[in-house]
Prior knowledge:
heterotetramer, B: mainly beta, two-stranded antiparallel sheet, D: alpha+beta, Gyrase A, domain 2, Alpha-Beta Plaits, 5 helices, 24% helix, globular
Amino acid sequence: MTQRNRLDTGGRIDRGTPLGFKFNGQHYQGFAGDTLASALLANGVDVIGRSFKYSRPRGIVAASAEEPNAVFQLGATEATQVPNVRATQQELFDGLVSQPTSGWPGLKIDFMGVVGSLLGRMLPPGFYYKTFMFPQAAWDTYEKYIRKAAGLGRSPRKPDVDTYDHLNHHTDVLIVGAGPTGLSAALSAARAGARVILADEQAEMGGSLLDCTDKLDDKPAAEWVRGTLQELAGYDNVLLLPRATVNGYHDHNFLTIHERRTDHCADHAPTNLSRQRLHRVRARWVVLATGAHERPLVYGHNDLPGCMLASAVSTYINRYAVVPGRKLVLMTTNDNAYRTAFDWQDAGREVVAIVDTRAYATGAWQAEAERRGLKILKGMAVIEARGRQRVTGAVVAGLTSDGNRVTGDRQILNCDTLASSGGWSPVVHLSCHTGSRPVWDDDAIGFLPGKTVQQQLVAGAVNGRYSLSDCLTDGASIGAEAATKAGFPAKPATVPFVRTRPEIGAMALFCVPHPKPNSRAPKQFVDFQTDVTAAAIELATREGFESIEHIKRYTAMGFGTDQGKLGNINGMAVAAKSLNQTIPETGTTIFRPNYTPVTFGAIAGRHCNDLFDPIRYSAMHEWHVRNGARFEDVGQWKRPWYFPKADETMQQALNRECLATRESVGILDASTLGKIDIQGKDAREFLGRIYTNAWAKLPVGKCRYGLMCKEDGMVFDDGVTSCMGENHFVMTTTTGGAAGVLEWLELYHQTEWPELDVYMNTVTDHWATMTLAGPNARKLLAELTDDIDLDRDRFRFMDWRQGTVAGVPARVFRISFTGELSYEINVQANYGLHVWETLFDHGAKYKLTPYGTETMHILRAEKGFIIAGQDTDGSVHPYDLGMSWAVKEDKPFSFIGKRGMKREDCVRANRKQLVGIKTKDPSVVLPEGAQAVDNPDHPLPVPMLGHITSSYYSACLGRSIALGVIKGGHNRMGDTVHYPLADGRIVEAEICNTIFLDPEGERQNV
Amino acid sequence: MFYLFCPYCGEHREEEEFHPRGQAHLSRPEDPDGCTDEEWGDFIYFRTNPRGLHHEIWVHAVGCRKFFNVTRDTQSYEILETYRMGSAPRITDLNDKQQSREVQA
Amino acid sequence: MQKYSGFGLLRHALTYHENWQRVWRNPKPKKKYDVIIVGGGGHGLATAYYLARVHNITNVAVVEKGYLGGGNTARNTTIVRSNYLWDEAALLYEHAMKLWEGLSQELNYNLMFSQRGVLNLGHTLQDMRDIHRRVSANRLNGIDSEALDARGVQEIVPILDCSASRRYPVLGASWQPRAGVARHDAVAWGFARAADAMGVDLLQQCEVTDILTEDGAAIGVETRQHGVIHGDRIGCVVAGNSGVLAKMAGFRLPIESHPLQALVSEPIRPLLDTVVMSNHVHGYISQSDKGDLVIGAGIDGYNGYGQRGSYPTVEHTLQAIVEMFPIFSRVRMNRQWGGIVDTCPDACPIISDTPVENLFFNCGWGTGGFKATPGSGHVFATTLATGQPHDLARPFSMFRFHNGALIDEHGAAGVAH
Amino acid sequence: MSEAVNAAVNEPIRVAVMEQLPKANVTARSPLAHSTRVVPGTIQETAGVYLWEEALRTHLAIRGNAGSADFSRGVEAATGLALPDRLQCSQSGDWSLSWIAPDEWLLIGPGKEAYAMELSLRAQLDGHYAVINLSGGQTLLRLAGPKARLVLMKSCPYDMHDRNFPVGKVVTTVLAKSQATVHRIGDEEWALVVRRSFADYVWRWLMDAGKEYDLGPRRPE
């Protein structure tokens, strides 16, 4: 097909660069500078989709972000599919592949023509609430069919091949929109030296100036645009962002800008370049120069292809050199739209008539029209369009002066294009994102930005100042004001002179009346994408949905991907009329981010795949990888979980690791435990307040285990803290709890007890920590140190010593989480790998065996040691854990948690208490999480006693062991309880002491 | 997204550097052991939770690690002042907004 | 009440839909009611409905400052499930689940309650322990619940990336087949219509400015638009504003109001038929019957009444979604919004008497209120009808925050050595 | 028996201080020892941005009361550096002293001198103060080149513009999902202090962010 609607001259397209593209399986050609929409119109493609609910043919209506119909699937390959791209915003590139998204049953098949209009009438708003209820079970089936019809485009089925990134900015003035207002605002602000960001959603900056036929200083508008952009580009304090939509306005002047960096080049981005970028901008002052969208008029069959916005018709002619038809009827409520008729005529096509709804329309624009020989029908309106696949005619009738009724005879005008203009709707969206309500303005016949707490100024058409010269002047002065407020005293830039015709007042008309009531009139569409009609809105109000929010929700008005940019105001007007209210009384719904849709990937940025979340490594990580470790995620850390040898199952590996440790010596990388260095003369007092146990007398050189509670008395972390000096302690925390504990300590220090002299710093990463455990631990360590006396009585359990291990200065703590003779070696992390490897160099004769978190868990469970976060869940206090030995009630200071654990519910009998659990069948390992019951035959719901918190097969004991909580468990030693499992088994088990191995603790003291 | 003035760093910083830590100016009872369950429960759980002016604690977690106070309108999210631990708010009524500027510590 | 059916729809279609009746009246307030319910959201309307239907108390007003169902009912991601950990919570939510089943028919209003199943993913060993614990408890409480491994998850959601190469691979999930989603507006409207039909007065655009008391007992409310309205008993069901109402009555609640955000994609062809939730990578997602991906995550950490939250939360949420579903990277986000949730320290609601006699509160549902709507209304109706809590509501007294009998649904902190 | 405990017998040890570096010839491994080899690119002159690790330096945190003249005098006496003001850095030769918090500074210097410097600080200081050796727990990254600022803008929410971030300023801020102390040391020269366990993540992040600008290894002198 040729570009039959393309003009031979004019426009901002490059006829020397033809671009081939595909739509709906057909090949077409456009030019560089086209949008997909302008190229389709150039090729005379009328029907580009079918409507969602009624399957009516639809064409292109608008030329930018407000387009409701031309919403396509893009992408040449599976991985580059993009759903729901607005053709008016997609620049054409060579090889572009697009598909309609709403072509059911097919673009060319007139489904409704076949089945008649009754089925259409079966779909009033809310019909699904009223039907599909019987029988109850059938909804599932109904829903399957409803879901078949859902959605527009489709998601790709393959992962994205492109990347996205973020760029953070801070600026003095952010100007949104680079039309006449934004450009002159930018000039004022930039000249004053303020940091300025000017963002515009289109490929070319200039906005309406790019399709405007007015002269600025007697020169074409585009020349002024070029000059202005050149000047702005010359300032290093100015950032120009074309193809960048400011889509969200958040608190404290934080705005997000979605830049499409490569969508105009090809199906996917070039290597090393992100496809799209999200700019995160903190602006001192924001100037909204977002302009206004033209508002179409609502009339019968106004959704036929060929019905367009007047300004869009002008844009296609002037900017893209495309005349989207032959014979135009223009309906308008205002003078401004007369340009469209003039543009059409200047393009050499026929203007059938200008239908002006105002009987009083007599002024300069009308005089010009008459001079051009154009027919004006005053005080009249198009009440319905005629045609099937495209407009073939317009039915015109007289209007009463209030616009409420049709009068006089009807006449039919033959035409293929029906442009309408109901005036302008300021693009107030961004101004509403932080909760400000827009305010109706009768002069502007639209909502203007309301009061806000943001540092925001508005200029030009968004503020109801629609004329070009007003926009330029307003922009210049608001731009200067913004710069001044941001600390850069500025004068308004001089703006070019615009020769214009005076305009007479516009008429507030939204929905053109029809001789029939709306319920019986031809469908008058308010929201095209969601197929909401004037009749539907009236029906909603008739049914009692009177709030505009109810109307919106009941009819789905504004819920499309265009978020009702074209239709919302008309919908409110229809609702207001139906409720006998004014539009401000009816109110508006709230605009929310995004202004236009934003790619998930762009919002996620580079925080995906390998960079989704930090991966933290210990200094010995490489060794673990080399030695076949399987890893466990603990917080952000990767910890070795176990070290399987070839062909070993997990259980076999664990058995081997456990036995090796108990029989000889094992080693664990414990570097991930949180470590907090505490210095200051009150460090000891501080510890006494935040731990439940006593710290007053712990001598230098000794270590102690401590429990930490919240004010409610519930355990939240634990660990060993060592006294390094009178004024110096090193605390250890759980791996996952480290950051939280430090912040918790600081909270108390800084807010409650600032008088205590303590300084706390994390040293988690500074020390590499390796735990040698097992009867041969001492022998092995002795081989690597000559300055630490390892004698059992001089370096005792819970002591720490300083010395040298494998040639590296170390702190060695004789503490044990396994119940074995155990030394925790700490060296500066840069030497961790060296010491670790040296231990292995010497360890072979002791069969030194690396073990991971799982073996550690088993070994400690054999000893009945808890893991905070596994055996506790924020609802158990130290007494529940049977750890009264770790609570010192008579400390002078009422430590954190003390009062909490004395509350009525915390001291009752029958609390869930931590006990040991032994299955009657020693080979059965209870699943962690299994719930105990006394009577497994009890009907549902079965009263439960508590769950298994830890459960393992213990190779050392040759049987399963478990820890769990049981109601009143401390007084039920020896009782039998039952664990009904998901697979139907019921496991019998006995309540026992939590310590399964070496109850006297002899092994750690050897 | 908030932009908070850290009274210790003397600069506005992005919300991502901070954590909110709830209502400010709560103090731990002098004698917890002498509190009734009700008094203790009130201390740890019950909050004013106002719509409007709220004094709250934030910590400059990724930054100087200092806790400080913020007076904020919980409806408009306007920050009316930020001030150091241990000092009192200057704004205790939304009508005092005009004097609202962050304390430039 | 006008009966809704497919046949009725056809009849109305023939008369151009000109004869539909109002779904509810716009009544003038009476001077006095037996019960005043403050708050015309889903929970308040359900309470009114069950007061009338179960307790035959119809001299009831629902006082709503805006429009019916305009608060969190209209702002949530519509997930309905009952697989809670603790007995008290599980039994309450399961009570609600049983009411959901058949509610469309009972109300003669299609709530589009779709039992398409909910997956709660586990990504760490501790996640899996918690899942097994919860599933085990659920089953003994008579709630359908299964623990799945990664392969089982993959079978249910083929488009979820369950590969071991993810940052936090999916290790398994809990699966509640009876769980699902419902159409949120329909819930409010369905209850409203049915309550109105039984004589309940629904007073929209009627804002309570004070709670009137006499001798320590509540006797009515002062309203901005209609002055004083008296009531024998007053129930406040004003999620997001409970603290403000409590202040009027002169007491504080163990509640903080936080912004909770949600967002939707543009409508796309259906490809996700279940609800997928992940606490660990922190996002949840389902696809509506319109084709939108409906997405949510956690609350913002600060108090806020602004019905909007912070942008980083949106970023983190979408990062989580793209991490779980890399194929959604090119799908686009259409809209975000926020609600105000009342959060309790133990993540469980308050259904309770208060220090003021005849004044009752139903609040603190946090992020989980929608799923409880019928159950919450049903048990709170008992409280308002009898002055005594329903057995299922008894553990949810606000005074548990004094004696310490919390029901800590935050669950395990997820830390380990 | 350790010196600390030995000494405790006679005079109470207040704080445990130790030489943490081996006397023997032991290879130290910086947190990025595994990654520095894999920086892509060889055409060093044309790279828009350069990234490298200055491994194994001395990192000491110093805590104390900035308002106390004794404290600032003591720090200066030991380090030769004046206590810097808020968000500033004092520099002299191989040593730099950066403001971290109102009561915290970060001293970075030659790798082998941590112990001597800590002793010297402790000799000069009195009252309530602390010195914490963090040399193993963090590392120093260098970012340079005409596009270095853009890489930082991709990574940090802080305002990196000349007007807000002049040479000499130091800021601790968010870097991707981790954090860094960022010091501008020249027009196109930045130093980043990051925690050891996060170093690999930060490194991979920066390499990724620099891809677009043809990231190269250490800038030619």
